[in-house]
Structure formats: C-alpha cells, structure tokens
Amino acid sequence: MKTSRRVILAITGASGAALGIRTLALLREAGMETHLVISTAAKQTIEVETGWSEADVSALANYCYEPEEISAKLASGSFVTEGMMVVPCSIKTLSAVANSYNNDLIARAADVCLKEGRKVILVVRETPLHRGHLRLMDQAAASGAVIFPAIPTFYAGHQSMEDIITDLAGRILLRFGIANSAYSQWMGDGNIDENQSK
Ligand SMILES: Cc1cc2nc3c(=O)[nH]c(=O)nc-3n(C[C@H](O)[C@H](O)[C@H](O)COP(=O)(O)O)c2cc1C
C-alpha cells in the first residue's frame, strides 16, 4: 500500500494566491504527491493577484479536485496522506475548519486529517484580527491544526516580493516536515544562510 509522501494542498480565497502557488511548486520539487483543491474564491484571487491561469496552477499538481466534490477520496480517512496545508487560508475556511462545518471538500479534508491525527497547517491571511478570529484560531489549534500566519521573515532582508514568498513557502514545508532549501536560515549574530533556490 502506497501511503507516504502524499499531501493535500488547498488554495483558498484569502489574499496571497502566489504563496499557494509557490508552495505547490516547492512540494513538486520535493517529490511530494500533491492533491490540490482550489476554492471558488481562490479561482478569482489567482486571476486578480497573479499572472497564472487556474489551468497552469492545476498542472503543477498530481491530482486536482473541485471544492464541491465532497465524495472525493480526500473526504475519507481511509485515503492516507501525511496531512494538509491550506495556503493561503481565508477566515471563512478557518471558521469552517474550527467548527467542523464541512460543507466543501476543503473543510472536510482538513477535518478528516485532524480526526485521523494528521498534520494540518492553516496559513491564515488577515489583518487586523478581531477576537472572533483569534477564537477561531484557538479553536482550530485545540483540534490539532497548526496556525501559521502569512508573516514575512523580516530579518532575512529580502528585497523582492518573490523572495519573501519563496522564503515563506519554504518555512511552511519545513513546519510540515519536508526538507527544502527555499528559506533563509538564521545563523546567529546577524548572519543569514540565504539558501534560496532562486
Ligand atoms: C482579492 C481578494 C482578496 C481577499 N483577501 C482576503 C484575505 O486576505 N483574507 C480573507 O479571509 N478573505 C479574503 N478575501 C475574501 C474571501 O475570498 C471570501 O471570504 C471567500 O468567501 C473565501 O472563501 P474560501 O475560503 O472558500 O476560499 C478576499 C477576496 C478577494 C476577492
């Protein structure tokens, strides 16, 4: 039975579609088997924020699903994966995951991963945050999700948005447990090992 190195990636309609795309590209470079769900709203943000077409993004993944496909294999714990990343994660999807409100494949797949004790990383992108948002993050974290806000590595001194995005995507993979060289490493005393795959 093939079960390893399989990861679910959802791109939702928070700002930062480019971060989701870069994460997908890094997963591909790392040799992961990727299962991609792009939310209906993310289809818009991809168009508005990036020069990518949905088809080109989907072509980076091994398998693609529509958010309405609630009978897809990702909806069952019997389909074994290492876990799921939601990059970027909207407040709406955060709320769905926190409340097990599984009305689309993204929320359902995340809920399945949590109930099976698998990794779930929510790259929440919103600012500023009210207490309701903070409560939702706390609630999702209590169920086992990792809250990974889309916050740049300021100390790395990146000059371009592209470098900031690559660094952040590398850190997301690192948190998931996937070795990569896309992020800058703090070496102490102001020194940075800029190990980026530019
Ligand atoms: C250009 C654009 C940027 C958006 N940015 C954010 C954001 O940063 N955070 C957020 O929570 N929602 C943001 N939204 C709103 C979400 O897209 C909206 O709440 C949507 O219903 C989320 O659905 P989804 O989670 O299924 O993708 C944005 C919408 C657009 C069109």
Structure description:
The chain is of the alpha/beta class. It has helices spanning 17-29, 40-49, 54-58, 91-98, 105-115, 131-142, 161-176; strands spanning 6-11, 33-38, 63-65, 83-89, 119-124, 146-147, 184-188, 191-194. The chain has a six-stranded parallel β-sheet with strand order 3-2-1-4-5-6, sandwiched between helices. A two-stranded antiparallel sheet has the order 7-8. Strand 5, helix 6 (131-142) and strand 6 form a beta-alpha-beta unit. The longest helix has 16 residues, at 161-176. Bound molecules: flavin mononucleotide. Residues 12-15, 39, 41-42, 44-45, 48, 90-93, 125-126 line the site of flavin mononucleotide (FMN). Residues 12-15, 39, 41-42, 44-45, 48, 90-93, 125-126 line the site of flavin mononucleotide.
Q: What are the salient characteristics of this protein?
A:
198 residues; alpha/beta; 6-stranded parallel sheet; two-stranded antiparallel sheet; 7 helices; 20% strand; globular; binds flavin mononucleotide
Strand order of the main beta sheet, please? 3-2-1-4-5-6
Helical fraction = 25-40%
Q: Enumerate the spans where pLDDT stays under 50 for 5 or more consecutive residues.
A: none
Number of strands: 8
Overall structural class, as computed from helix and strand content, comes to alpha/beta
| Succession of helices and strands | EHEHHEEHHEHEHEE
N- to C-terminal distance? 36 Å
**Overall average residue pLDDT:** 94
What integer value in Å does the Rg equal? 16 Å
How can the largest sheet be summarized?
A: 6 strands, parallel
Strand fraction: 15-25%
Task: Please tally the helical runs, counting DSSP H or I stretches of 4 or more residues.
Answer: 7
Ligand set: flavin mononucleotide
**Overall shape:** globular
